[in-house]
Amino acid sequence: MRYDAAIFDLDGTLLDTLDDLAASTNHALAAYDLPPRTTDEVRQFVGNGIMNLIRLATPDGSDAELVKAVYDTFNEHYAAHHLDLTAPYPGIEQVLDDVRGAGMRCCVVSNKGDYAVGPLVEHFFPGVFEVARGECEGIRRKPAPDTVLSCMKALNAAPERCVYVGDSEVDVACAANAGIDCIIVTWGFRDEEYVRAQGGMTFAHNTGELRSLLLA
Question: According to CATH, what is the number of the domain 5-16+87-215?
Answer without folding.
Answer: 3.40.50.1000
